[in-house]
Amino acid sequence: MQSTLDPRSPDQLQQWAARWRDELLLNVLPWWRRHIFDAEGRVLGGRRNDGRELDAPRSAVLGTRLLWTFASAEQRLALPPGPELDWAWQWVTQGLTDPEHGGVFWHVDAQGKPLATHKQVYAQAFAIYALCAAHAARPDPEQRAVKQALGFFELLQAHAFDKADGGCWEGFTREWQPLPGARLSDKEPPAPKTMNTMLHVLEALTELLRHHRVPAVEARLRELLVLFMDRIWLPGPRCFGLFFSHDWRVLTPQVSWGHDIEAAWLLVRAADVLGDAALLARSRELAVKVADAVLARGMTPDGSVLGEGRFNGRVTDDRRHWWCQAEAVVGFWDAWQISGDPRHADAAWRAWRYIARHHVDPVGGDWFKTLDAQGRLVGTVPKAGPWECPYHHVRTGLEMIERLTP
Asked: Which of 34, 170, 241, 309 is the most exposed place for a label (fewest CB within 10 A)?
C-alpha cells in the first residue's frame, strides 16, 4: 500500500474506492452474514475474537444497526436481495419493538423477551435510522418502514424533547415516563442530556427528512443542528461537550475525538438535507475547525485516533477503537472536500492505512474492535457484541466508495 495519497489523482482515488468495495464485499459483510444470526434468523448476542458465540443480551444497538447495515449495503452497493435484511427487519420490528407502548426495548433475550424494558432515546434514534434504510432498500407501496419510522418520531415528539431549553432527554420507562439517571452505560456520568444521543437523533432525523418531508421533522432537525453549533460545540477547548445539564452547563471536561470527527461530517449532511444555505455554510466552516482540532490533539503520528482525553489535552484513553478510526477516514475526507487542505486528505489516508494494518482481520474476517496503544488486540472486547457492530465501518466504506467514485 502506498505511503501517500494524491487526492487529485483519479487513478489513486478509484483504486482506493475499489479497495473499500473489496473490504466490504469480501471481508466485512460476509463475516456478519455468517456469524450474527442463528439457524432461525434470530440475532445472536455476539462473537468473541476467536469465533466463539458470546452469551450476551441482544441489544437494541446491535439489532437496529444490523438492519441499517444490510439494508444500506443492499441499496447502495446494488446487491441482490438477501435474507439478512429480512431477518434483521423481523428482529427489529418484532423482537425489539414494544407492541404495547411503542419504541424499542434496550435489551431482549434470544427469543425477543424483554430484559431491559426502558426506552433509551439513543436506541429509538437508531430504530428510525434503520427503518429509513430499509425503506430505501426495499420501498413498498404501503411505505411500512417510513410509517414505522414516523411513529417512532412521534413518540420522541411527545416525550423526548425539552420544551424549555431544547434538545432531548436520555431515557424513559417502558411507559414513557421520565427516567432520571438514564444513561447508555455505567461508564458514563449521570447527565440529563448528552452529545452522543443528540448526535444520533440528528442523524436519524436527517434520513427521515430525506425520505419524508414532514414539517415537524424539519423543525426538530433544525433545532438540533443549531444546538450543536451554538451550545454543544465549545470554542474554548475546541471540542464538543459530552455531558450537559438541562440548561446546557457542561458537566465534565471530557473530549471524545472519535465523536468530534463523526459529528463534523454528520452536521454537514444534516444541513445539506435541510436545504438551508446559511446553516450549510456554518456547518462546513465548523467541520473544518473540528478536523483541525482532532488532527492537532487526537491523532497520533501513526495515523490512529485516540479514545478520549480532557480539555487540557491530557489523554485518558489511549486505546484505538475501530469506530474512531472509521469515522476519522470519512470525517477528514469530508473536511478535505470542503477545504481543499491536503492535511485533511492525508489524515484520512493515514487513518485508513492504520486500519488496514491493525484493525482488519484478513484471516478471521471483519475488523478487530479495540487495540491498545501498541496496536495489539484487547481480547476482552468481542468482535461482535452489544456495542460491537458493523455500522461504523460499513458506513465509512459506503461513504468513501461514493465520495471517491467520479
From this structure: 34
Instruction: Write out the H or E segment, with its range, that includes residue 220.
Output: helix 215-227
C-alpha distances (whole Å) from 255 to each of 10, 70, 266, 297, 331 are 36, 31, 18, 10, 16
The CATH code of the domain at 10-404 is 1.50.10.10
The beta-strand segments (E) located in 334-383 are 370-371
Residue 2 has pLDDT above 90, yes or no: no
Taking the C-alpha atoms of residue 183 and residue 284, their distance in angstroms, rounded to an integer, is 30
Q: Which stretch of DSSP H or E encloses residue 222?
A: helix 215-227
CA distance 266 to 32: 25
Q: Residue 1: is its pLDDT beyond 80?
A: no
264: exposed, middle or buried (Cβ count in 10 Å: 0-12, 13-18, 19+):
buried
Instruction: Please count the CA atoms within 13 angstroms of the CA of 318 that sit on its side-chain side.
Output: 10
Indicate the burial class of 54 (C-beta count within 10 angstroms; 0-12, 13-18, 19 or more). Answer: middle
Angstrom distance (rounded) from CA 352 to CA 387: 22
In terms of Cα–Cα distance, which of 89, 178, 172 is closest to 123?
A: 172
Q: Mean pLDDT for the chain?
A: 97
Beta bridge partners of 244: 193, 250
Q: Which residue has the cell 434514534?
A: 125
For cell 430505501, the residue is 136
pLDDT digits (tens, 9 = 90+) for 219-232: 999 999 999 999 99
Collapsing DSSP to helix, strand or coil, 256 comes out as strand
pLDDT digit string, tens, across residues 320-356:
999 999 999 999 999 999 999 999 999 999 999 999 9
Distance (Å) of CA 245 to CA 63, 170, 306, 309:
30, 11, 26, 20
Which of the 8 DSSP states describes residue 307? S
Sequence ranges of the domains in the chain = 10-404
What pLDDT, on the 0 to 100 scale, is given for residue 102? 98
Task: Give the sign of the dihedral formed by CA 13, CA 15, CA 20, CA 21.
Answer: positive
Alpha-carbon distance of 246 to 361, in angstroms, equals 43
